[in-house]
């Protein structure tokens, strides 16, 4: 369905020096710098897949999505979406896709939500009967009815996201691109949106390409994961493999009163004896312990730490994407 | 006094830095204004060369050129962001923050505007004054008096803009009406054509308005058109307007503060 | 056609919002009235001192001025969104939206916004034109009215094309409002008889940024002193050429080279 072959994208950036002198110099001669945002990537997507496309900021995610949606033209390589080359046949491609940006809306700011749907119906040439059914279904699924008459600018972030999702699905697209759809939302709303996406995928076989920084999005939705780093895809495969390796990685931050080289070493030894991939890092006045919770529990680490150190405060977080990517670079997946 | 400078000077500097961050754009903008200037120039050129008189309403052609260039420069200096700043603050609600902070809103806006004024002075007014001095179109005394009068004219313009900006509380489309206001002020202040060209009856009306003090007065001083007594009179006129406008500003601002604290921004 | 249907939906929506904010609209329109009025006062004051400007009388200058505001206003009415493109759409990433919908992006961009304030310009333009028409004892034949409409339409196309080029620059530089501003300043020249300007400016206004074809050149034809032969035909030709250039050469290229912002 989607075929991406050896695609690269290079941007030309003009470097501007700081200050007045630099600005004046900039008027005459500017240094050109070429940034390879995406380097020779290839992948194929089958109908009905939900792909979690992850990577650090600036890794090339958005660039890839923009090329697949036809916004950007690849510098080299080819992309085919349902047999259409996106940047060449933008309109043809647009009929088949729906896009939701987490950071900004595609709806009309001043118009009431209901009118937005009316306009989209015309733009996408949705037939009346199909529109009725679809419209009612989406309103129901995303619980939009309560605020359907309000202008878009008055909606909260969660409401707006649901509205954007409904708008993107109105014309029964075959592919749905979601760019950070849950960013900034609270847990309840995130759940709702994830459920909706899952249902849409199951019911209509919509292929979903999802970019996100939220690992739980991936956990809940994705069947396949692609990781991009510095313009290259360093992992493309089933979610399970990542899960097995990193899914249970957590990070414990400890604020301790004083440091003692030997005690830190002892802690490191202790944790590594249970989980050899773990790490104990020192950062200013806190210790960061990265570990696999399948191999050693938080309680065990905490109790050992509290015995050896005076712990002033602690916090526990999930592993973040950056760490996973770093690890992948270093170790690879077994 | 030093504290005044220390607190508010950063705003002035911030404006200048903003402009210098995109010097290309600033220059494009100045260039754009220059084009407008040329339209007016060519019209006057035709008038002076085709007509029989060398002096029209007391202006020689050279004096008219000085007037055109200075009026564009001065219009830039007196007419810029304050109205938009206020409208923006009101629309975004940040005006409330300005009331909470221990910084005088008026002074802050004034210093922001002065940043732009400094820019215009260095790019347009100072260089032009120098050229005019060299070409013996004016003398040093006049230039000094001009700068003093210009500063007062800027104050008048600022105070007026502030009152006008307060309208953003009641009118949503302040952006649209801002254009009209600029055009009107330009006309009545002498920015488009020297005020002496208006029929006498109209001039009498203009005389009781503050706009003359913004553009016409300083430029006439530059050209040395006023004798000693007249000079004192126009300066007093500017001072008078500053006082009156400060008074009105005070009333309007008090009312605005009340409006906000009751309604909530 | 589908485009008309879509446009109608946009306009309907827009008029609805407009009715809600009636006062704002009137204020905006009034504001343009004042802008126009001050220009006309300027012209009147000039002519109180001289009988003619390079051979052009007061009424003839008014005729040219009124003539120039009509296409300007019509263009302003429909294509105001181009200013926003020059100003903010690329920088904020909003422009991507136009590339993701199954309609012509330019049509989508333009039809989204309708600026009724521009009626101020149009009304004044028509009024001044009518006044001068009467004062000059003009009497258009049917053919001449027909040519008048053609000339106005050509003027609109010229304005839009030039504006499109200026706004398209933002596709490369992210923001082109100051550039567009300069281009618009050049339009002011076209409200006056071209013969008063230097050759250099006349060349620019004729060959590089052909605003002279919007008002002065067609107006001169109707006044009876055509500046160039085959006046109206030339206007149409220029309009066609400019549009082709602006749309097919500049805009389309801009879309290909477009490097959107944001991550």
**Helix percent band of chain C:** over 70%
- SS strand fraction of chain A: 25-35%
Q: How would you characterize the largest beta sheet of chain C? A: 2 strands, antiparallel
Coarse morphology of chain A = globular
Number of strands of chain C: 2
The main β sheet of chain A shows up as: 6 strands, mixed
Q: Which stretches of chain C are poorly predicted, pLDDT < 50 over at least 5 residues?
A: none
CATH architecture grouping of the largest domain in chain A: 3-Layer(aba) Sandwich
Strand order of the largest sheet of chain C: 1-2
Strand order of the largest sheet of chain A: 5-6-7-3-8-9
User: N- to C-terminal separation of chain C?
Assistant: 37 Å
* Helix share bin of chain A: 25-40%
What's the number of helices of chain A?
Answer: 12
Tally of individual domains of chain C:
1
What's this, in brief?
The complex is a heterotrimer of chains A (334), B (265) and C (263). With 265 residues, chain B is mainly alpha-helical.
Task: Give a verbal description of the structure.
The complex is a heterotrimer of chains A (334), B (265) and C (263). In chain A, the strands form 3 sheets. Chain A has a 6-stranded mixed sheet, with helices on both faces. In chain A, strands 11-12-10-13 form a 4-stranded antiparallel sheet. Chain A has a 3-stranded antiparallel sheet with strand order 2-1-4, covered by helices on one side. Chain A is built from 12 helices and 13 strands. With 334 residues, chain A is α/β, with parallel strands linked by helices. Chain A has helices spanning 19-28, 61-68, 90-96, 113-123, 128-141, 157-169, 187-204, 215-221, 239-247, 261-274, 298-308, 321-331; strands at residues 2-15, 31-45, 50-54, 76-81, 97-101, 175-179, 207-211, 224-229, 232-238, 249-256, 279-283, 286-292, 311-318. The mean pLDDT of chain A is 83. By secondary structure, chain B is mainly α. In chain B, helix 1 (2-21) crosses helix 6 (105-134) and helix 7 packs parallel to helix 11. Chain B is globular. The model of chain B has no long low-confidence stretch (mean pLDDT 85). Chain C has one domain (2-257). Chain C is 75% helix and 2% strand. Chain C has helices at residues 2-20, 22-47, 58-79, 81-92, 96-99, 105-111, 119-135, 142-173, 177-189, 199-208, 216-223, 231-257, and strands spanning 52-53, 56-57. The longest helix of chain C has 32 residues, at 142-173. At the B-C interface, helix 2 and helix 8 of B face helix 2, strand 1 and helix 9 of C.
């Amino acid at each position: 369905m989607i075929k991406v072959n050896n695609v690269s994208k290079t941007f030309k950036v003009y470097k501007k020096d700081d200050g007045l002198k630099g600005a004046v110099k900039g008027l005459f001669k500017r240094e050109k710098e070429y940034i390879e945002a995406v380097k020779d990537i290839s992948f194929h997507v089958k109908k009905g897949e939900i792909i979690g496309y992850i990577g650090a900021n600036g890794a090339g995610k958005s660039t890839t999505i923009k090329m697949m949606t036809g916004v950007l033209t690849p510098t080299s390589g080819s992309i085919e979406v349902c047999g259409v080359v996106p940047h060449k046949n933008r309109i043809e491609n647009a009929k088949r896709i729906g896009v939701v940006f987490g950071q900004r809306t595609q709806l009309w700011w001043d118009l009431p939500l209901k009118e937005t749907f009316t306009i989209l119906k015309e733009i996408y040439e949705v037939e009346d009967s199909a529109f009725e059914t679809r419209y009612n279904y989406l309103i129901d699924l995303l619980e939009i009815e309560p605020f359907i008459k309000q202008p878009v600018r008055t909606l909260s972030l969660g409401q707006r996201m649901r509205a954007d999702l409904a708008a993107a699905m109105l014309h029964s697209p075959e592919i749905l691109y979601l760019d950070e759809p849950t960013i900034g939302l609270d847990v309840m709303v995130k759940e709702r949106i994830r459920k909706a996406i899952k249902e849409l995928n199951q019911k209509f076989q919509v292929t979903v390409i999802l970019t996100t920084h939220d690992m739980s999005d991936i956990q809940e939705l994705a069947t396949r994961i692609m990781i991009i780093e510095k313009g290259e895809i360093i992992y493309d495969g089933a979610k399970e493999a990542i899960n097995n390796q990193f899914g249970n990685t957590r990070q414990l931050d400890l604020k301790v009163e004083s440091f003692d080289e030997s005690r830190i070493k002892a802690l490191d030894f202790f944790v590594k004896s249970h989980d050899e991939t773990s790490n104990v890092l020192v950062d200013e006045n806190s210790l960061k312990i990265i570990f696999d919770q399948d191999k050693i529990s938080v309680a065990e680490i905490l109790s050992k730490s509290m015995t050896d150190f005076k712990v002033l405060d602690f916090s526990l977080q999930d592993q973040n994407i950056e760490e996973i990517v770093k690890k992948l670079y270093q170790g690879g997946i077994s | 006094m030093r504290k005044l400078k220390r607190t508010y000077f950063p705003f002035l500097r911030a404006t200048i830095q903003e402009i210098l961050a995109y010097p290309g754009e600033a220059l494009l903008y100045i260039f754009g204004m220059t084009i407008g200037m040329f339209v007016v120039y060519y019209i006057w050129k035709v008038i002076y060369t085709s007509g029989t008189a060398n002096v029209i309403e007391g202006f020689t052609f050279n004096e008219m050129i000085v007037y055109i260039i200075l009026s564009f420069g001065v219009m830039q200096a007196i007419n810029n962001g304050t109205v938009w700043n206020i409208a923006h603050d009101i629309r975004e609600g940040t005006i409330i923050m300005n009331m909470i902070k221990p910084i005088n809103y008026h002074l802050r806006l004034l210093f922001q505007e002065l940043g732009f004024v400094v820019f215009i002075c260095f790019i347009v007014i100072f260089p032009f004054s120098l050229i005019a001095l060299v070409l013996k179109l004016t003398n040093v005394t006049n230039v000094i008096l001009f700068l003093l009068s210009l500063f007062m004219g800027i104050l008048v313009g600022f105070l007026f803009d502030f009152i006008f900006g307060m309208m953003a509380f009641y009118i949503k489309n302040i952006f649209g009406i801002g254009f009209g206001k600029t055009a009107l002020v330009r006309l009545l202040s002498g920015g488009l054509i020297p005020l002496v060209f208006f029929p006498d009856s109209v001039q009498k009306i203009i005389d009781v308005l503050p706009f003359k003090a913004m553009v016409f007065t300083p430029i006439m001083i530059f050209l040395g058109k006023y004798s000693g007594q007249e000079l004192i009179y126009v300066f007093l006129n500017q001072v008078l307007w500053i006082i009156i406008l400060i008074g009105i500003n005070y009333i309007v601002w008090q009312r605005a503060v009340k409006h906000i604290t009751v309604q909530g921004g | 056609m589908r485009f008309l249907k879509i446009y109608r939906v946009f306009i309907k929506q827009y008029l609805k919002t407009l009715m809600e904010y009636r006062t704002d609209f009137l204020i905006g329109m009034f504001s343009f009235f004042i802008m126009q009025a001050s220009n006309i006062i300027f012209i009147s004051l000039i002519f109180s001192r001289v009988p003619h400007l390079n051979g052009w009388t007061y009424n003839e200058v008014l005729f040219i001025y009124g003539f120039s505001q009509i296409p300007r206003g019509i263009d302003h009415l429909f294509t105001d969104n181009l200013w926003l493109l020059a100003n903010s759409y690329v920088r904020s990433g909003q422009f991507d939206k136009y590339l993701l919908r199954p309609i012509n992006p330019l049509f989508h961009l333009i039809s989204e916004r309708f600026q009724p304030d521009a009626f101020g310009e149009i009304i004044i333009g028509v009024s001044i034109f009518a006044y001068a028409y009467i004062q000059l004892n003009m009497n258009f034949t049917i053919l001449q009215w027909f040519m008048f409409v053609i000339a106005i339409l050509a003027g609109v196309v010229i304005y839009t094309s030039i504006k499109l080029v200026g706004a398209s620059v933002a596709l490369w530089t992210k923001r082109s409002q100051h550039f567009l501003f300069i281009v618009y300043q050049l339009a002011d020249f076209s409200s006056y008889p071209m013969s008063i300007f230097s050759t250099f400016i006349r060349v620019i206004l004729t060959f590089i940024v052909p605003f002279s074809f919007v008002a002065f050149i067609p107006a001169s034809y109707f006044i009876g002193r055509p500046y160039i032969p085959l006046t109206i035909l030339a206007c149409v030709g220029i309009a066609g050429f400019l549009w082709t250039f602006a749309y097919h050469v500049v805009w389309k290229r801009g879309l290909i080279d477009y490097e959107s912002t944001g991550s």
